[in-house]
Every structure is written in C-alpha cells, then in structure tokens.
Q: What sequence folds into this?
C-alpha cells in the first residue's frame, strides 16, 4: 500500500468508514499480532490484544495526525503500549514477564519447523528492547525509521540495537545448533 | 561499530549478504532472512483471528458511528464496574450504604442533605472540610500516547499530592513542574516522578505519611511532566473536584 493510498484510507477511517477500517485491519493485523506474540509469548492473548489495537485506534483516530508519524507506526505504538500494560499486569499477578510459547507456529516442513523453533528460542534469549527491534524490523517489516518512531529512538539507536540483537541471536543459535544456517 | 551496523543495515534493507568474504556478517543477514520466512509461515493460522478481530472492529466502528459528535470516551480511565464475581466487595459496599443511611436518619431530617458527614459525626469520626483538585493530563506531540492523572487535597490535618503516568516512552526520572500564573507553587521545586522500563510511574506525597515538601495545589495550577531531555510530555490545568 503506497503512502498516498494509505492517506486516503486513513481519512476515510476518520470518517468511520467501515470498509476503510476493514482494509487497514487486513493490512496490519498479521504483523501486529506477530509483534505482540513475540512480546508476550501467549497466542490467545496476542490475538485478543491485536484486536484491541484496532478498537483503541477507532477511539483515538481523531487524535491521529500525520506529522511524521506513519499510520502503521502509530498502530505499532498502540500495540507496544497495550502489550506493555499486559506484561506489567501479568508480572504483578504471576511474577512472569515473558512466557515462552509452548510450541512454535507450524512451518512448511519438518526441517523448517525445527529451524523456526530454534529461531524462537534464540529470540527469547534477547532482552525486551532487542526482541522488539528484531520483530519490528524483520517479522513486521518496518523500516529502521518506523521502528524508531514506535520505540521513540533515533534511527542510529535502532541500527545499533538491531546489530547487537542479531549478534546475540547468532551466539544463541551457535549454542542451540552449531549447524544452523538460516535463510 | 557504527560503520559495521550501517553496512549490515544497508545489506538487510537490500536483502543481500554483506560480503562473501565476511562470513560473520553474512551469518547475521541469514538470520534476518530466516526470521522473515518464519513470519510468513504463520500467516494461514492467523486467518481465524483476523476474522474475529474484524467482527470486534466493526462493532467498535458502529458504536463510534452511533455516538454523538463531541463526546469522547477514553477506555483508560473508565470506572471499574462492580461485578457479580466480586460478592465480598458488593456486600461491604451495601453494608456501608445501609450504615450511612441509617445513621443519617437517626441523626435527624436536618442532616439528610449530607448523610455521609452526618454519619461520620454521629459515629464520632472526624469529617474535616477538604479542598480537592484533579485532572487527567493531556499528552503533547513529544510523547503522543502518554497519559496521566494528577490529584491534590488540602485538609486541616494533611496535604496530599499524587501523580500517575502511563505509556510514557522514556524511562527514568521525569521532572514535574507545577506553576500558578507562571510562578512555581510552594514546595513544588525539585519534584520528579520515576518512570519504569514499562512506561509507568507513580508519585504519592502525603504529610500524614511524613512527607515534608508536598505542593499545595489549587484549581487553575498548571501541572507539567517533562521528559529527561526537558520536553513537556504531559500537561493540564488542575480542576476543582
């Protein structure tokens, strides 16, 4: 979706156009849910929170203005806040901040499933900030600039966190499976 | 380090290995490629969730369409609903209400206009006259998703000031500025709130708890929260409660 198309959709969404909202949900829901899942490690809650992002966006859309904040990055900021709230409440209740998933989503074949599981394990060894950058950049497809907007950090800081995160993942993968190649 | 991360980032944007001879960096780009594949493989299992999210979204849009323009609802500060799953709280609230109304009736018809104070006086409890102010703070463009609430109270036996913030994007100590007509309010100098890594912070000052410098606020005072870099992120004028 081009920026121009998205601008039109957002204008229609502000006017509470049902079809425009459906289009925006279709465009962003999978990536938002992936991002949330990787922060909280709970599939059912991730589905619920990703839906909440859009409910919150419907309420707040009147406050949204372009001003250098792309709509996708705005949605991811809402997702970040909602998932942070969730993690905070769960930590108060149970003392657990991140809950590793019981099983990884199914891949196309056994080899890929094993690789997926290894990547998930390596991802879970990162700190929250590193994990967020990796997920935003490579699994949610945001640019370094957009990831910077979501996390309120400079592009340079995002690049540095990303670099450290990938190195940490490489080290973790070497321990999990020295033969891991990826790609 | 910066040059290396710039090179890596350029390669990741272009989705190409950094250099054939640089196996270590190439290893990092291969992890990024693998992560992209992982996110693609989960797509089919997302469809049901997307359908459910769409139903919820449509309900939210319909609710918004039906709402008269100009009336804002904000989920963050919604009053908690009393639910049947909390019978103990319901019973305590009911018992308190019965006591208040009963004592007010015993105290005489002249006191029916203010049953809580009448009940407190009849039961021998102090009922200090108090002045209360509060406001929900508005986020500025420096941190548009931040939110917060400030409250103040003066009574003859105590002064209280509390501040809560949520969804603040920067952690650490944040200055709190309280001014009246541009001048700092008494005992507000050097005030700060600590924001945790999850973006939340709480400040509670009460002279009854031993706090010696509690700002004495009143309606019309401006409360501002500043980021560590000095930008105002939350701001609003206190209102009488």
A:
């Amino acid at each position: 979706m081009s920026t121009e198309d998205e601008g039109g959709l957002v204008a229609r969404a502000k006017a509470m156009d049902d079809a425009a909202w459906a289009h925006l949900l279709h465009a962003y829901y999978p990536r938002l849910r992936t991002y949330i899942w990787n922060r909280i490690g709970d599939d059912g809650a991730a589905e619920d929170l990703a839906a909440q992002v859009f409910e919150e966006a419907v309420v707040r859309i009147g406050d949204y203005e372009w001003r250098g904040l792309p709509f996708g990055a705005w949605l991811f900021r809402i997702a970040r806040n909602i998932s942070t709230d969730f993690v905070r409440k769960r930590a108060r209740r149970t003392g657990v901040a991140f809950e590793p998933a019981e099983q990884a989503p199914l891949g196309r074949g056994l080899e890929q499933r094993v690789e997926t599981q290894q990547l998930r394990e390596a991802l879970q060894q990162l700190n929250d900030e590193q994990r967020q950058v990796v997920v935003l950049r490579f699994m949610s497809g945001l640019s370094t600039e957009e990831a910077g907007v979501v996390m309120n950090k400079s592009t340079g800081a995002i690049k540095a966190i990303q670099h450290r995160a990938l190195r940490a993942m490489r080290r973790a993968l070497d321990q999990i499976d020295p033969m891991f190649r990826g790609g | 380090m910066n040059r290396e991360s710039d090179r890596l980032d350029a390669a990741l944007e272009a989705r190409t290995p950094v250099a054939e001879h640089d196996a270590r960096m190439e290893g990092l780009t291969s992890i990024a490629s693998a992560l992209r594949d992982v996110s693609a493989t989960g797509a089919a299992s997302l469809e049901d969730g997307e359908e459910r999210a769409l139903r919820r979204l449509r309900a939210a849009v319909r609710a918004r369409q039906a709402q008269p323009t100009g009336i804002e609802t904000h989920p963050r500060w919604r009053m908690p609903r009393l639910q049947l799953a909390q019978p103990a709280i319901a019973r305590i609230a009911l018992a308190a209400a019965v006591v208040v109304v009963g004592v007010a009736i015993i105290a005489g018809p002249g006191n029916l206009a203010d049953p809580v104070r009448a009940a407190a006086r009849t039961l021998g409890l102090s009922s200090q006259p108090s002045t209360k102010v509060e406001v929900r703070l508005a986020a500025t463009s420096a941190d548009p998703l931040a939110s917060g609430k400030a409250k103040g109270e003066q009574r003859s036996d105590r002064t209280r000031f509390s501040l809560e913030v949520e969804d603040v994007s920067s952690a650490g100590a944040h200055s709190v500025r309280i001014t009246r007509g541009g001048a700092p309010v008494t005992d507000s100098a050097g005030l700060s709130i600590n924001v945790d890594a999850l973006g939340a912070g709480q400040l509670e000052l009460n002279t009854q708890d031993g706090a010696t410098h509690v700002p004495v606020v009143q309606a019309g005072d401006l409360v501002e929260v500043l980021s560590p870099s000095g930008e105002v992120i939350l701001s609003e004028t206190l209102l009488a409660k």
